[in-house]
Amino acid sequence: MPVISRVVSMILRAGELAFAGIVAGVVGKYLHDYRSGSAQPLARFIYIEVLAGISLLLGLLWLLPFSSGFVHWPVDVFISVAWFAAFGILISFNGTCGRWRATEAFSFLSAIFWLVSALVGIWFIRRERRKAAPVAGTYTRRRWFGHRRSAV
């Protein structure tokens, strides 16, 4: 049993949950306090809030220690790219207050954690496939679409 990879995965998922919760809370406060102005910053805040909500949902679902949690690495890569985009959006605002800087930092950390989680998933899947590969000299069943031609 790959205990280390499961523990690392659970630690990463817990970090993803924490970072998404912090970003959701701070951006939610900004959305609550938003009064007027152009719709462009509001759309960016909504994007970040939705991304944080999706991250919270997926992080909670995939926090459970099942081996099928490692096959979700393509979604982890996608969420990581989305968090990097959110980080770029936050940087473009040039906020100076401490809460804003914390949101920038935690969005970057969330992107890194999602990316590392994807890398752990890729590593786990490759390792399991290597273990399941047949050993040379053992009998393997030939598929119907094999490479050998009929002698007829």
Keywords:
152 residues, mainly alpha, 0% strand, elongated
How does the SSE layout of this entry go?
Elements: H1 3-33, H2 39-61, H3 73-93, H4 98-132
Helix pairs in contact: 1-2, 1-4, 2-3, 3-4
Note poorly predicted spans.
none
Q: What oligomeric state best describes the polypeptide chains here?
A: single chain
Helicity range of the residues? over 70%
Number of strands: 0
Tell me, rounded to a whole number, the average pLDDT: 83
Largest sheet: none
Structural class assignment: mainly alpha
Strand content: under 5%
Cα end-to-end separation: 48 Å
Supply Rg.
Answer: 22 Å
Shape summary: elongated
Transmembrane segments: 12-32, 44-64, 71-93, 105-125
Pfam family, one: MARVEL
Subcellular location: Membrane
InterPro entries: Marvel (IPR008253)
What this model shows, in words?
With 152 residues, the protein is mainly alpha-helical. The chain has one domain (11-128). Helices cover 72% and strands 0% of the residues. It has four helices and no strands. Helix 1 runs antiparallel to helix 2. It is elongated.
Structure summary:
The chain has helices spanning 3-33, 39-61, 73-93, 98-132. It has 152 residues and is mostly helical.
